[in-house]
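Entry 14. Structure prediction run on the chain below.
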Amino acid sequence: IIGITWILFANRKSTHAGPDNTTGHRYDGIDEYDNPLPAWWFYLFVITIVFGLGYLIAFPGLGAFQGALQWSSGGQLQRDVARADAQYGPLFAKYADMPIAAVAKDTQALKMGQRLFASNCAQCHGADARGSFGFPNLADNDWLYGGAPEQIETTIAHGRSGAMPAWEAALGNQGVVEVSHHLIALGGRDANTKLAAEGAKKFAMYCVGCHGADGKGNQQIGAPNLSDDVWLYGGSPLMIQQTVRNGRSNTMPPWLERLGRERVHLLAAYVYSLSHPR
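Output returned:
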């Protein structure tokens, strides 16, 4: 700012002009005059300099100096959140103590839940909540950790972290192929009978601890049901083999601290309504 101010005022007066106020340069018969900036232009520069100095005094911009107003983006966010809580808090509180199944039947609550979903969940699960590769479909009745209202709310509030270990070292490539055919047959699709039979033996040795003898999974630990045709990472033979061979790891973050109990309750009701339409 100091340098720009010096340049601005240093060029206010002509220093190189001759008696006729020209610089001595001529281009195509046109003489170059050494005139200062027009007054309006000069004062516009002055205004921006004064504004810049005032801004740096009022707001942070000079190292650790916080500014006379002590403004910060975090403080502004907190004020905005407090103002929003004061305005919308009573509306959220209206539904906070209602059962989720009852909230899921309230039109206004569902509109609020849908907006919360669009702002916080659609990036992963899609605007229609039908998920994508690695992100569960929330509009069906297939649940990793349970689809009861309380289970959905717990999932949203505290998040989930699931992992399946890689089995290629234990099964070998042939064993991976055999297990994949068993899983295909388990889901009711056509598979190689011989490979599926061998895969069933290996499944009983390595997989039943999590997925159960019938392959229907365990919602307590997030082990998926393998006896249907719903696949989080794809159900083609190659994708199943890749999952068995290399394992999978997935995490959903917790939302309680960010959204608060009332918003999580509304969000859970909206998600519950997707698989339990009125």
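The two ends are 64 Å apart (CA to CA).
Filed with the rest of this week's runs.
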